[in-house]
Design goal:
- By secondary structure, the protein is of the alpha/beta class.
- It folds into two domains: 21-46 and 286-384, Aspartate Aminotransferase, domain 1; 50-283, Aspartate Aminotransferase, domain 2 (3-Layer(aba) Sandwich).
- It contains 14 helices and 13 strands.
- Helix 8 (182-195) links the parallel strand 6 (164-170) and strand 7.
- The mean pLDDT is 94.
Length: 387
């Protein structure tokens, strides 16, 4: 007897839809041309503190090179808890992860089942769409409208339904620089309560909020406190993106589940690096870094405004989403503009299309990272405004 089976793909349908970074090819071009990179968010400012680097070396020399508890070094969790409002219990409500990327995936896997729907704002960080796809969920996009990048409450309400399991937020936001205000968070809280949905909020850029704004975490909002999972990271605040240290904050019951998923995915972040931040966290002056980041934002706004671009001032984070249509007259795309600027000035920006669910909505935009040293930004200004 001959048995025949239908040929199936050797990869899962969820993995098959994933795509690599949209910036990969451009970054290679930029490196070949020794261009200045303002495309990716890898911190060029601030510098990692000397105390932090020494603490890492000390931890390694002291033998802290093996597994720590999967939930993370307790002193580090205590240090993180000190930065959060209202206070989180470091023993039962915080989990250290391998960067915010793992934290995001763990939060989704612990919250949703395949086929569930996840509400998210558009444009947004492209990794969100990939993480939702990998979890087998269905995205429901809520369009943000330029130039202020706010949603219409009617659109928000329409995105929720019986299959809604979670809402994925990012504040301050990549790429728009928006900081969600209390009115918006209250609207989201009411919908989450009605549809019994969990809010997962990426607050990676929470240390960089500008112009005297008060920072408001979803964990502080009545109606979201008890149904929220906060994704955090030390990558930008401490300028250690290569250390891959993130965290999850949730109530004790959710944290118990998050930790089980975390153990399956990575079992824990690098021990000596966790110890280093726990020991030397106070050597990092976050207030001074925020002041300097605001100045970097202002430098970038001024030079690209002179270039002819239009944008709303970022309220937080480290990105500027700029409309290039006044420069291009709509005759070519953001990617073409990026390539032209790379050729003419040796400066790399990120095309905006990849941040939109419908890429055509983003063709007239570019994203500019401004977490760079002021001297470097001065060189960017010289290059793009030359002549």
């Amino acid at each position: 007897m001959v048995y025949t089976t239908a040929r199936r793909s050797p990869v899962s349908s969820r993995a098959a839809v994933l795509q690599g970074s949209s910036l990969g090819e451009l970054l290679l071009l930029a490196r070949k041309r020794h261009a200045i990179d303002l495309a990716v968010g890898t911190p060029g400012y601030p510098e990692p503190s000397a105390g932090l680097l020494q603490a890492a070396a000390d931890a390694m020399q002291a033998g802290r090179n093996q597994y720590d508890h999967p939930s993370g070094d307790l002193l580090l969790r205590k240090r993180i808890a000190e930065t959060l409002a209202p206070g989180a219990d470091p023993r039962t409500e915080l989990t250290v992860t391998v960067g915010a990327t793992e934290a995001l995936c763990v939060a989704l896997l612990a919250t949703i089942d395949p086929g569930d729907e996840v509400v998210l704002l558009d444009p947004g960080y492209e990794q969100f769409r990939a993480a939702i796809a990998l979890a087998g969920a269905v995205p429901r996009f809520v369009p943000l409208h330029p130039p202020a990048w706010r949603y219409d409450p009617t659109d928000l309400a329409a995105a929720f339904g019986p299959r809604t399991r979670a809402v994925l937020l990012n504040t301050p936001a990549n790429p728009t620089g928006r900081v969600l205000d209390r009115t918006e968070l209250d609207e989201i809280a009411a919908l989450c309560d009605h549809w019994n949905a969990t809010v997962i909020c990426d607050e990676v850029y929470s240390t960089y909020v500008f112009d005297g704004r008060s920072w408001l975490s979803v964990s502080e909002v009545p109606g979201l406190t008890e149904r929220s999972i906060v994704v955090g990271s030390l990558s930008k605040s401490h300028a250690i993106s290569g250390w891959r240290l993130g965290f999850l904050r949730a109530d004790a019951a959710r944290t118990e589940v998050l930790r089980r998923v975390h153990e399956v995915t990575t079992n824990g972040a690098a021990t000596p690096l966790q110890v280093a931040v726990g020991v030397a966290a106070l050597s990092v002056d976050l207030c001074a870094a925020t002041v300097q980041m605001a100045q970097c934002r202002d430098l970038v706004q001024e030079m690209f405004s002179r270039k002819g671009m239009k944008f709303a001032a970022p309220e937080g984070g480290c990105y500027l989403l700029a409309d290039i249509s006044p420069v291009t007259d709509g005759k070519y795309s953001g990617r073409q503009f990026v390539l032209e600027l790379l050729d003419e000035a040796g400066v790399l920006l990120a095309p905006g299309a990849s941040f939109f669910a419908d890429s055509t909505r983003g063709e007239q935009y570019v994203r500019i990272a401004f977490n760079r040293q002021p001297d470097l930004l001065g060189e960017v200004e010289r290059r793009i405004l030359a002549g």
